[in-house]
Amino acid sequence: MKRSRTHALGQHFLTHPGLLDKIIRVIDPRPDEVILEVGPGRGSLTSLLAAKCRGVIGVEKDERMVLTVRGRNIPRTTIIQGDILQADWAGLLGEAGAEPGKSKLAGNIPYAISSPLLAKTLEARALFSRSVFLIQKEFAERTTAAPGSKKYAPLSILLQRAFAVKRHFSVSRQAFVPPPRVESAVISLTPRESIQFPVDDEALLTAFLRAAFGQRRKTLANNLERLGLPSQDVARVLEECRLKPKVRAEEVPLESFIALFARLNAAFPLGSMIGDGRGRGPDDPSGAHKC
Questions:
Q1: For 57-83, b where at least 16 C-beta lie within 10 A, e where not — what string?
Q2: Which end of the chain is flanked by fewer CB atoms within 10 Å, N or C?
């Protein structure tokens, strides 16, 4: 039996009224705001958003879902068929007359695009006053993880430098039709006035963090030495940053990581050693779920 496109995309639909209302309260749509929605699906969240804001722009990849939600004729809503990762967010909001920083981004995020979507959200942070996502619970835990947690990762550091990140509540698999294999959670990202501990090359910092966390069972020094950095210089810089010789990456606070990066980048050609990592993101599981 041939699979439908919706099933092939692994979509799971959230229709529970109580949970949708909770998500709306986190998004907090205002009458003067435009909401950019990631993957409207059947439009369950879309209709609730449209009732409370100036307008909704939904970007949906699945042609069948585009026809479905357009057929509902939801007021103040524009549905565009396309890939949210390829879409011109600033252009879409500009066409709708939205002011930068006075729009919001929201959606029930396909698991397969969680990492690149958050990376794009990070780059486009000036466009939105808040971003609210329903994502895989394990992935959500990484966004809010603190040093010392096994969930602490490059994603934790990069997002927390730029946003106040909050995990609001979990969502059971049984809230979706059909149920996905994993639990989900709702997170919000509220931009800080400025990035904490800015650096000259954000892409290189991202690549450096991935290398530092490359093999979690090894010490941070081991991971850095694998880049070709001399062990004696690694030991010296760790000491200068007041880090123990056998410290692991997951134990290093954000500020110390930035200081470590700055010292090493000043002393060595890190760019040629590790590349800039542009366009890549931390791994995340595949699958998708929709409203």
A1: bbbbbbeebbebbbeeebeebebeeee
A2: N
Amino acid type, 233? D
Residues 181 and 255 in one domain: no
Going by C-beta distance under 8 Å and a sequence separation of 6 or more, which residues neighbour residue 26?
132, 168, 186, 188
**Residue 25 φ then ψ, to 5°:** -65, -35
144-177 tens-digit pLDDT? 999 999 999 999 999 999 999 999 999 998 888 8
What is the pLDDT at residue 194? 94
Q: Which residues are registered as beta bridge partners of 80?
A: 59
- Residue at 283 is within a domain: no
187 and 55 in one domain? yes
164 is written with which tokens?
């106040």
CA separation, residue 18 to residues 15, 218, 245 (Å):
9, 45, 50
Ramachandran area for residue 197 (φ above 0: left; ψ -120 to 50: alpha; else beta):
left
Summarize pLDDT for 39-58 with one digit per residue, the tens: 999 999 999 999 999 999 99
